[in-house]
Design brief:
Largest sheet: 8 strands, mixed
Distance between the termini: 18 Å
Shape: globular
Helix content: 25-40%
Radius of gyration: 20 Å
Number of strands: 14
Structural class: alpha/beta
Length: 324
């Protein structure tokens, strides 16, 4: 099963300031503020929803196709993804813009000052999925993740026009999109991914009820945080899957992306929706135990031991064959 994952490609530059921002602010001079903070720590982390998802799928033995836009500074990141089983040949490289970047400084009180540079992400709208499909011999599913809004709309329309099944997963872009665009992104989707809060926001912005939304998509997958995930289909009983026991909660960033990676990998293997969701929840647990979205390692035997403990021997027997 050939799965393409489109979405943002970015790096995070995270700095730590040992003092307090508040101590450096003069109340009656904020209109002329000019400050520089001497930081004592810098972490550069790979990110972006599409590479995060693709990395997880690569860890599970799937070779996903990354679709997105980056700058000429992407080569080191590309090499990392290539080494971890990701097909990066369909990444559009901008000739003039850098890869999208989030730069953030956190003080001793955990207050943050940050900036997001969209950069090359704005050129994702230039990517044609048909070219990607021709290169790899056809596409069985395209996940359309948070990206340049025009790119998301173009990819969705192209999937509908060409009859390519697609998954709608607009997550962070819901806040800036109006109801009309959200309706366009959902109409005809094979899968709709959202979390519990996003589910309510989608219904509020579109004016559609939960039942109307479900009638317009094949399968709705709603992540519920520590309560796991709910899968809904018209005329079928809901499927609810809990999460495995966590060793530690180190960093929640990228947990949703990891779930999608595991779920899509399950679809690629051909297991049922419940098993796919269980794989997604197990992979998400590895991410929450690790600082960073692509810093975890998947070791087959420990993974399956924990999967068996969480979901039972029958579930494990069905999944184990794909993790040899």
């Amino acid at each position: 099963m050939r799965i393409a994952v489109s979405g943002s490609i970015a790096t995070d530059h995270l700095m730590t300031f040992p003092g307090r921002f508040a101590d450096q602010l003069v109340a009656d001079q904020l209109h002329t503020i000019s400050l520089s903070f001497l930081v004592d720590q810098l972490d550069v982390r790979r990110g972006g929803v599409a590479p995060n998802i693709c990395f997880g799928m690569g860890q599970l033995g799937i070779r996903p196709i990354l679709v997105g836009a980056a700058g000429t500074d992407f080569e080191e990141y590309r090499a990392w993804l290539d080494r971890h089983g990701v097909d990066t040949h369909s990444v559009h490289i901008s000739e003039v813009l850098h890869t999208a970047r989030f730069v953030c400084t956190t003080d001793a009180d955990h207050n943050q000052l940050g900036s997001f540079y969209t950069g090359a992400m704005s050129e994702a709208r230039q990517i044609e999925l048909q070219t990607v499909a021709e290169r790899v011999g056809g596409l069985d599913l395209v996940l359309i993740g948070a990206d340049d809004p025009e790119a998301m709309l173009r990819h969705t329309e192209e999937c509908r026009t060409r009859g390519i099944p697609f998954a709608a997963d607009f997550s962070q872009q819901i806040a800036r999109m109006d109801g009309e665009n959200i309706r366009l992104l959902m109409e005809g989707a094979t899968y709709l991914f959202n979390n519990e809060y996003e589910a309510g926001l989608i219904e509020s912005k579109t004016g559609w009820t939960a039942e109307e939304i479900l009638a317009k998509v094949g399968t709705r997958v709603t992540t519920l945080g520590s309560n796991g995930v709910r899968i809904q289909r018209v005329g079928q009983p809901d499927i609810e899957v809990g999460v495995p026991e966590e060793k530690v909660k180190a960093d929640p960033t990228g947990v949703g992306d990891a779930f999608r990676a595991g779920f899509l990998s399950g679809l690629a293997w051909g297991v049922g929706l419940e098993r796919a969701a269980q794989v997604g929840c197990m992979l998400a647990t590895l991410v929450i135990e690790t600082v960073g979205t692509q810093e975890y390692e998947l070791h087959r035997s420990p993974f399956m031991d924990r999967f068996t403990k969480a979901y039972g021997h029958d579930a494990a027997a069905e999944v184990r064959q794909y993790l040899l």
